[in-house]
């Protein structure tokens, strides 16, 4: 008896990225710009037509909101953000690690 191996997380992650790009394409098709919102049902209907549906679309929307590409305007409305966060902005928000006392002392002596 051979059983099929369970799928790894990589295909799900790639599919999630594919759905996120398709959602951004829906915003582009609707000529949505920062300041104009789309209803969640419109997005889900467009994604159903493309063959994506259900929980994967919801997870992709949540991921785009966390990444700063979309913003919620209420329970059912989504807005495209002005610009995606840059890598420089992300670097500024990271905390730098403290060096140990020994490393600080040697850095001052050099």
- Stated plainly, the CATH topology of one domain is called Arc Repressor Mutant, subunit A
State the order of secondary-structure elements, H for helix, E for strand. Answer: HEHHEEHH
* Apparent shape: elongated
Largest sheet: 3 strands, antiparallel
Low-confidence stretches: none
For the record, the CATH class of one domain is: Mainly Alpha
Classify the secondary structure makeup into a structural class.
Answer: mainly alpha
Tell me which oligomeric state these chains represent.
single chain
Mean of pLDDT: 76
Strand order, main sheet: write it out.
1-3-2
Q: Provide the helix percentage.
A: 55-70%
Q: What is the count of DSSP helices, taking H or I runs of 4+ residues?
A: 5
**CATH fourth-tier homologous superfamily of one domain:** Winged helix-like DNA-binding domain superfamily/Winged helix DNA-binding domain
Distance between the termini: 67 Å
Q: Please provide the count of β strands.
A: 3
What share of residues are in beta strands? 5-15%
Round the Cα radius of gyration to an integer and report it.
Answer: 21 Å
CATH architecture identity of one domain? Orthogonal Bundle
Protein name: Helix-turn-helix domain-containing protein
Organism: Vineibacter terrae
